[in-house]
Write a structure and sequence with these properties.
Radius of gyration: 19 Å
Number of helices: 6
Order of helices and strands: EEEEHEHEEEEEEHEEHEHHEE
Largest sheet: 7 strands, mixed
Strand order of the largest sheet: 1-2-3-4-5-6-7
Oligomer: single chain
Strand content: 15-25%
Helix content: 25-40%
Number of strands: 16
Distance between the termini: 30 Å
InterPro entries: LACTB2_WH (IPR041516), Metallo-B-lactamas (IPR001279), RibonucZ/Hydroxyglut_hydro (IPR036866), Sec-metab_biosynth-thioest (IPR050662), WH-like_DNA-bd_sf (IPR036388)
Protein name: MBL fold metallo-hydrolase
Pfam family, one: Lactamase_B
Structural class: alpha+beta
Length: 307
């Protein structure tokens, strides 16, 4: 049984880089040519509306992708740019699109960690943070931005990053969910940039909403979004149970847990898996279920609190 048997992932995504595709009326998408174990086939940028449009997630620092996006909206006016979060595969191209269109940039804020870095922690290279990004207009949960024939509501979805927002289009029952929910794989939650406590609360927030088609930062659209989110919640709880099962056998470290839990993992993802386990352990330590000496860090050893 593979690690992901409990979640109905869909890795069928034939979209080619640079091609504009209307996936639903009023929603177009363009794929960037930046495939990797973390980005699947690449980052997906979205164009919302017709005539006067918004662009969501301009993507990485990639001139060809910026040109493809601008070509897709040739003859139209870009009135808004939205950014779900500040990872380098989502936000750096914003400057190019803004330069070409003059459109203001809407986002939660600059990059920040979910919690202060512990003294014993080294910088986490997996985070891929875009520390140069700053929005023109900061928006938060519940804020509504209206354009020509569309209306987007900011939904706070911290967890993958502290400043992650989804953008819901309630009238159409669409939600642009960035990297918080992906149809092809689970999201990476890597402390201190990410937080499992925040991530799980954000999943609950999405599951309680009525939008049923999710447009993700990577991979295909997700039908029955809230149902898929409930799968993800169960999957994360199963991962937590696997960690507790391993700790029930005695004190251990994160590399040992990764080997026990992630059978057959792509070796390029081992470090990220370790940070995902750390995110669960932070949550478990905060709840008093698991104990460690000092701060919960990637190099620590962990045991059941009652052991």
């Amino acid at each position: 049984m593979s690690d992901n048997d409990d979640v109905p992932f869909n890795r069928d995504f034939p979209l080619k880089p640079g091609i504009v595709e209307e996936v639903r009326p009023g929603v177009r998408r363009v794929l960037c040519n930046n495939p990797s174990p973390f980005t699947f086939t690449g980052t997906v940028s979205y164009i919302v509306g017709r005539g006067n449009v918004a662009i969501i997630d301009p993507g990485p620092d990639d001139e060809a992708h910026a040109a493809a996006l601008l070509d897709a909206v040739s003859g139209e006016t870009v009135s808004h740019i939205f950014v779900t979060h500040t990872h380098r595969d989502h936000s750096p191209n914003t400057a190019r699109i803004k330069r070409s269109t003059g459109a203001p940039v809407y986002a939660e804020g600059p990059h920040r960690a979910s919690r202060p870095r512990f003294e014993s922690e080294k910088h986490n290279p997996e985070s891929g943070a875009d520390r140069n990004f700053a929005p023109d207009i900061r928006i938060g949960h519940g804020d509504v931005v209206e354009g020509d024939g569309w209306r987007l509501e900011a939904v706070a979805t911290p967890g993958h990053t502290a400043n992650h927002l989804a953008f819901a289009w309630p009238e159409r029952k669409f939600n642009f969910v960035g990297d918080h929910v992906m149809g092809w794989s689970t999201s990476i939650v890597a402390p201190p940039d990410g937080s499992m406590i925040d991530y799980m609360e954000s999943l609950d927030r999405l599951a309680a909403r009525e939008e049923d088609v999710y447009f993700s930062g990577h991979g295909p659209e997700i039908p029955e979004g809230p149902r898929f989110v409930r799968f993800l919640i169960r999957h994360r709880k199963a991962r937590e149970a696997s960690i507790l099962h391993r700790l029930a056998k005695g004190e251990t470290d994160i590399p040992t847990m990764v080997r026990a839990i992630y059978i057959g993992i792509d070796p390029r993802l081992t470090t990220a898996a370790g940070y995902s386990v750390l995110a669960h352990l932070e949550d478990l330590v905060a709840r008093g279920v698991v104990a460690t000496d000092g701060d919960p860090v990637i190099g620590g050893t962990y045991r059941m609190a009652n052991a």
